[in-house]
Amino acid sequence: MPKPTTKSPARHEMVMDKLMQAAERLFAQQGVAGTSLQELADAVGLTRTGIYHYVKNKDEMLEALVKGFTLETAEDLQRLAEDSTAPALDRLREGVTAMAAKVAEHPQRFRLLLTSEEAFPEPIASQHRAARRDTLQALTDMVAQAISEDSCRPVDPELAAFSLAGVANWVAFWYPRKEGVASSAPRDIAAALTDIALGGLLSTRETDGAQGVPAALALLREDVDRLTHLLSDTPKA
Question: 51 and 67: one domain?
Answer without folding.
Answer: no
